[in-house]
Amino acid sequence: xxxxxxxxxxNHHTPDHHASGLLNQVGExxxxxxxxxxxxxxxxxxTERDLHDIGMSRSDIVFExxxxxxxx
Length: 72
Known about the structure:
By secondary structure, the protein is mainly alpha-helical. The chain has one domain. The chain contains four helices and no strands. It has helices at residues 6-9, 15-43, 48-54, 58-65. It is rod-shaped, with a radius of gyration of 23 Å. It starts with 5 loop residues before the first helix and ends in a 7-residue tail after the last helix.
């Protein structure tokens, strides 16, 4: 009787597996960055009344929109 199982003998951590995981992480990061960029761009176009309704000032928006897309 063998002490090795089929699962223990197969390599689940192939280079392709790691590459696809890395590509998924990169894709997710790019998606977050794009969403952040889009939200900030949209927020910059809001009117004073819109900002007042959510309790933000124009200076709050300027501060937020001047951040680089990679910074939360």
